[in-house]
Amino acid sequence: MNVIYKGKRVGTINEIRKLLSTKRPDLSRTYELGRTPREVISKLMIVCGRVGNESLGLYRAKAGELESDFIAVDSNSWTDLLASIKRAFDPGRHTAILLIGSRDELPSTPMRFGGNQSFTDWFLQDVDGDGVPDVPVGRIFGLPQTVLYHMDPLIIDSNIAVIFDSQPGRSNRHVQALVKLGFDVQVLEKFAPGDVRLMSLTEFILQFSDGVYSSRIHGTPDMWASHNSMILSHQQVSQIGFQGYPFVFSEACCTAGEGPLVRAFLNQGACYLGASLDTMNNTRSFDDWRYCAYCDGYKYGILDLLDSYETLGQVKLQVDREIFNHLDESPRHQIEDIKNHQSQDLSSENALSAIEWVMLGNPVRRTTVGPNADYNPGKITVDT
Known about the structure:
Layout: E1 3-6, H1 10-19, E2 33-34, H2 38-41, E3 44-48, H3 53-66, E4 69-72, H4 78-88, E5 96-100, E6 109-113, E7 116-120, E8 137-140, H5 144-151, E9 155-156, E10 160-164, H6 173-180, E11 184-188, H7 196-201, E12 204-207, E13 218-219, E14 223-225, E15 230-233, H8 234-237, E16 247-250, H9 260-267, E17 271-275, H10 295-305, H11 312-325, H12 329-339, E18 345-346, H13 349-355, E19 357-360
Parallel strand pairs: 1-11, 3-4, 3-5, 5-8, 6-18, 10-11, 10-12, 12-16, 16-17
Antiparallel strand pairs: 2-9, 6-7, 13-14, 14-15, 17-19
């Protein structure tokens, strides 16, 4: 595996190169692209919102081509949408749900934290009504050509991963995680025009936000940025033509709320998992990520399970389940109050950290791991 740091910290570059010294990925290489097997994609249940008759016809026809079941839902209520999903969902046939439409076209569950409102699809994963997620859900939206591509995207197997880290070398734990998952890892402090080719070939992009608060990467609906530097903007993402549906995981605040950044990633052909509200850091260590209902628990849960399941939707679902099942009673009650329409407000950081993560992309995209992937995060430490 290979780790390359691009930035000002020459000492760190030399240290890491000595530790993991192999050849850099050949960016002139052409990688084979494939499709999701029909026996996998045909088990999608596709749920389409109010996208207009012309687009609805296009998506219904595409679903027929994929042999996937398709339903159209015209509703302003997320509970009515969930009821429609429950009526149509067949656990003997369907393994995942693909939602088509922005939240204005296909409703999502509203929630508030700290006076800020956003939305989540967490509750739409509960098709048996027991309050615990049990089926992977992903959402796509945009122009018809964007939606049609996400329904059956081209998949790359480059084994290239890119990490955006505004303080490279401060911690290498996340780098080592991707190395153990079989990737050739490239670490960028921020995007530069010369990185377009690298980004286009990547299979996994990790936006890493741990570190000193004034230096770490923060999120907005428009960009990833530190306090004094833009890391990656939606305009820059729009310059990248992703060749093979990479998985993007962002732990920055507020990036998954259907803003320009997420729209750019979707338009350019990437699958995005991020938070719709603020992301919270743990102030004590945990022996197991499952008990760490904070940003690090979720991030290392995703990294832990990438080598354990076949699809990204299954990975997200299992992390959602594990985090929720290990919550204390009070945050669980706050989540249940949203489910039961008794409140939209969360005061618990743990409750927020359990349900704010949104998958924007096709949930049956196969997991992004390299050869001989084998990773276990162990103890989750405190980072400030």
